[in-house]
Probable GTP-binding protein EngB
Amino acid sequence: MADKVLGGGDEVEGLNLALGPADADELEAARVYFAAPCNFFYASQSLDQLPEPRGIELAFAGRSNVGKSSLVNAITGQNTLARASNTPGRTRQLNFFDLSGRLILVDMPGYGYAQAEKKVKEDWQGLMFNYLRGRPNLARVALLMDGRIEVKESDLAVMDLLDKAAVTFQIVMTKADGLKPGALARKTEELTALARKHAAGFPQILVTSARTGLGIPEARAAFAALAPIISQG
């Protein structure tokens, strides 16, 4: 899957990623970048509760139970940083995490959960969509999709929203360990083609498994390039 992984174009203490796979030095630089302390600092249930912008933000969006919290925990190496729930639709707020002033990670409520009470679902999905449309320091949305299931209408709606808002998104396939090699290759091609149909879509996707660690180093490299550490001297 290396040829399907994108890093970025900025420098992060020796990390200089072009359009293509990261090399060993770049992956190590990204590992060190995300090894910095990362702490929860804010939760918001409405737009008027959002924290003042304090750095570049990377938001994790996706359907309920797609693995957003698990991915945040995997890339930071902190198993209990973001709380994963076994109950779809339970997370109803934006949770903000500060990676030592380098990057702000935003764990978003899942969308597309049909069994949530209508008013509650409208409130938390409205919060999510309004955040995506209007956050000035939002650099990218990691749009998670479970590799084992088909793309849903709600996924397409979010991609259309991000196109209109001109907010770059990168598709991150999750739970890739649940696919056999042939199916994984086909799903990767499908999601790559989907991303390239959208003006705001990053042209290459990330293929990951929080359970096995597949693709986590490459995800770190791609995300670290959003907010590079500026070397002194």
Remarks:
- The longest helix spans residues 118-134.
- The domain at 2-224 is CATH 3.40.50.300 (Rossmann fold).
- The radius of gyration is 16 Å.
